[in-house]
């Protein structure tokens, strides 16, 4: 009845239930349900501390780095590969970017600390390194036929330690001010800008929903009833508005305002009540998610990724260059690791060599919990992001409740296996492979 | 006689010491159906995969419309209007019919994005002609029956104005009714002047559908005969003995 692939909207054969008429992916609903369940349970256990604007804000910035990489991991897993080296690539890119902005540009090139170009040169160098490492992985896998598991297992050992040599094992910081605005609390849009963005998103979403309907009608395809379209649009708009409302309800603490009121657009601290609003790291994640979704659904590159995952032989016989495709997918994964490195290192305000340790497992788990099938051909970007959010909620929720660290890991591990088991049962029920 | 549509001359290919196709030549004329017969492992599929670009021959020459061509990839073959319906159908099970039909040749919007609406509309059109009962346009092809999957694979070959069509066991997975439909389609395509290579194990079916049959054994060509010149028994003995009884 439904499928997780990006190309098959629900189209019930016989009786149309409420959800079927809305043409919502039941798996998506299931994941949102699971997320709400986790959130409510922790909210009760923490006496209402879990669902505060402050904690939700923290959750989003903690999720961003893993979620950014998880969107790339979807493409990797959909084509039946795996990437065990993403945490190590993140560390190598972070090391390079930290050295470029803290040591090399000011020390060797002689740019003043705080020069406007420093963060951008650093980010560009990280992106280049990440893309090159990814492309190398992809070349070894696609053209040299070394299994992805082995190539990236090697990379897991190699790249973090290449980073170690770049920094001589030292923690590098403090990072550039502009660079750190990608990290979360140091870079937020504030109230008015967050709302401006939210309203833009609401208008855009509504226009897209009704434009899609018009396109379908122009081809004479069946469409869902008007009330269903309107309801979907309302739900989407309410979700966006709610998200922005929560984030703009997180007020900047008074002592932070008192330290430097001008930073928040006030002359004196008295009567100044700024809010954080949407973090730039989350904005980056949303932009990446949108771009990756467009790639998956609307480009040949995305179509070939899913075709290759569904049937590699068929893809090749259709004239698709599956080897070059593999290089592109891993290069994209590497670039996303670099962006995740920007977010992760700037959140901590410095680069340390253990940055992103075990992230490969979190990223794979996020993609898999989000419905990406290791057998290939199936996966969604929004699923992976939701998966990352569920994992992070579990982790920080348990930390807030005060559960022992070992038990936290046991629970997260069990949830991963349980989620995949549920998925398999669901597919059996609905007759999907 | 008219110029052959395809001429394959002295084709050889080996895989790790096994001579899969050994110095085989074959021709195909416009509006003609040539059947390839032989045991499993006789080299039929291998020969045909050289023409469709899936394998690269070790030696030999291929002429299309009298011009020598190099076919190094499935894309090359498609550029020479050679379309193939593989025995395995070569469908991506997780994609819908339209995505499969246009796989590798997607229609795009002016901005370069894939135009799913247009592809679905085109798929509806061709399906209405090939298989009017086809309704499941928005489901992955894994949800389709064998016959429906086959019609997607056929639609893919026919849609792009093939001049040369290769059909590898097109009816192996089909019921009686669908087999008859494929036979009908072959007759129609023949009338349009296409040349068709047909691979099958079913000698009787081949006698009915083909103009000429070519029999292979152990990678070599046993012989090519016009169907009206031979009996089913002649063909069978060619397949089994590897000898042409009429030549003896």
Describe the 3D structure:
- The complex is a heterodimer of chains A (433) and B (248).
- The N terminus of chain A is likely disordered.
- Chain A has a domain of 231 residues.
- Chain A has 17 helices and no strands.
- By secondary structure, chain A is mainly α.
- In chain A, α5 runs antiparallel to α6, α11 crosses α12 and α16 runs antiparallel to α17.
- The termini of chain A are close together.
- Chain B folds into 2 domains: 167 residues, 3-Layer(aba) Sandwich (Rossmann fold), CATH 3.40.50.300; 67 residues, no CATH class.
- The mean pLDDT of chain B is 89.
- Helix content of chain B is 33%, strand content 25%.
- Chain B is globular, with a radius of gyration of 18 Å.
- Chain B contains 8 helices and 10 strands.
- By secondary structure, chain B is α/β, with parallel strands linked by helices.
- Chains A and B meet through α8, α12 and α13 of A and α2 and α4 of B.
In helices, the fraction of residues of chain B equals 25-40%
Largest interface by Cβ-Cβ < 8 Å = A-B, 37 and 37 residues
* Integer-rounded radius of gyration of chain B: 18 Å
Q: How would you name the oligomeric state of the polypeptide chains in this document? A: heterodimer
State the helicity of chain A in percent bands: 55-70%
Molecular shape of chain A: globular
CATH topology (fold) name of the largest domain in chain B: Rossmann fold
CATH class of the largest domain in chain B: Alpha Beta
Contiguous low-pLDDT stretches of chain B (5 residues minimum) are none
What proportion of the residues of chain A form beta strands (DSSP E)? under 5%
The overall pLDDT average of chain B reads: 89
Helix tally of chain B?
8
Structural class label of chain B: alpha/beta
The biggest beta sheet of chain A is recorded as: none
Q: What letter string, H or E per element, gives the SSE order of chain A? A: HHHHHHHHHHHHHHHHH
Question: How do the SSEs of chain B run, as a string of H and E?
Answer: EEEHEEHEHHHEHEHEEH
* Low-pLDDT residue spans of chain A: 1-15
Largest sheet of chain B: 6 strands, mixed
What would the principal axes of the Cα set say about the shape of chain B? Answer: globular
What is the count of β-strands of chain B?
10
